[in-house]
Backbone:
């Protein structure tokens, strides 16, 4: 009897999971990929849009039927997940499932920071975690001639732990290219004690050193309380205040509404199989809560979503009675940290290493930038062809 496998979300994890499932399962089984638009972008490209090296249109990910041959692509908003009835409620209908893969990512919650929506509406703040926001941040930075640009992490956890610091470095690179680096001060504010705290203190200190080399101020342990748009002022929970000419924000993240309703928050998963506590349900990528041996969560990053999706596809196939190789997720990952000048550092390591992740940060090199460009090129070619 044919089985229904439903994959929610056409980001990195969802695309790979759906594609691999189609390869592993009999043609009689349905693989349905649900996404609200099938019109997204690879996260690593957003910072290049901010820098001005890419346009929004050039980095669009619009998966084609030929790239997902045999996968049913359903454009619809996911409204609810009914774990008891094993069904997904979408606009205009309902999908029953024998196995479900949730890859809905993380939602941006600008409204949870008092004053942020008003600051964005007034044009004194932008976010850079969407294509529109990255483009707006570029346009604002391109026109600045004086003052202070503040890069603010509004809450943790957030996607791509290096991104706010990369963004600051690329903004500084843009100012250098315009010949006005001394007239604008760039500062980064974060609730964490160091950048990328899961990677360990040595990596964090090295990244702080890179910021300082480019005259970027680093301000740790700064939890935002509220923003005063008319005064261009940040007010932190410790009572301190900072002013800015322009504010670039990593908004607080939250689980998508259907996930929060069904699971009460981020989805806890087994670190090696990505199976959730709900029968027949797996989750990959930013929507998950995956605890490391030291008790901290695995960072929300595309490189992990990719590895998790490969594992989940095999696990789902086994769940449905198919044979498959060992599929345990290894927790290995790497990321690039752009410094400008088409140069990048690279961090990589084993995040399941005990008692804490073992991560190495390699010195900046043009080769690492080229590796990141190759990743983007391969991804766009794979899904847009």
Residues:
């Amino acid at each position: 009897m044919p089985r229904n496998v439903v994959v929610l979300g056409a980001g990195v994890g969802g695309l790979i999971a759906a594609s691999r499932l189609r390869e592993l399962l009999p043609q009689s089984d349905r693989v349905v990929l649900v996404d609200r638009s099938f019109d997204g972008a690879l996260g690593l490209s957003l910072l290049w849009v901010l820098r001005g090296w890419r346009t929004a249109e050039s980095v669009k990910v619009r998966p084609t039927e030929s790239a997902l041959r045999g996968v049913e692509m359903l454009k619809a908003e996911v409204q609810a997940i009914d774990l008891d009835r094993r069904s997904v409620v979408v606009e205009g209908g309902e999908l029953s499932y024998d196995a479900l893969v949730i890859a809905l990512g993380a939602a941006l919650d600008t409204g949870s920071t008092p004053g942020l929506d008003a600051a964005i509406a007034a044009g004194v703040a932008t976010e850079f975690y969407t294509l529109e926001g990255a483009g707006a941040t570029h346009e604002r930075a391109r026109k600045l001639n004086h003052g202070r640009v503040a890069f603010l992490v509004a809450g943790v956890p957030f996607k791509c732990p290096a991104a706010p610091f990369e963004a600051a470095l690329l903004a500084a690179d843009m100012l250098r290219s315009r010949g006005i680096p001394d007239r604008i001060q760039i500062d980064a504010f974060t609730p964490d004690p160091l950048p990328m705290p899961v990677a360990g203190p040595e990596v964090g200190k090295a990244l702080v050193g890179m910021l300082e080399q480019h005259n970027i101020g680093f301000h740790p342990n700064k939890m935002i309380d509220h923003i005063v748009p008319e005064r261009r002022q940040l007010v932190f929970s410790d009572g301190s205040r900072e002013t800015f000419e322009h504010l670039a924000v990593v908004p607080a993240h939250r689980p998508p509404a259907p996930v929060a309703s069904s699971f009460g928050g981020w989805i806890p998963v087994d670190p090696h199989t990505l199976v959730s506590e709900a029968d027949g349900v797996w989750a990959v990528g930013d929507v998950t809560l995956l605890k490391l041996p030291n008790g901290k969560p695995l960072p929300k990053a595309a490189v992990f979503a990719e590895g998790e999706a490969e594992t989940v596809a095999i696990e789902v196939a086994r769940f449905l009675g198919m044979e498959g190789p060992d599929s345990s997720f290894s927790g290995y990952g790497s990321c690039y940290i752009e410094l400008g000048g088409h140069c990048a550092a690279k961090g990589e390591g084993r995040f399941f290493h005990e008692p804490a992740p073992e991560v190495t940060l390699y010195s900046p090199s043009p080769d690492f930038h080229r590796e990141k460009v190759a990743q983007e090129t391969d991804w766009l070619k794979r899904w847009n062809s």
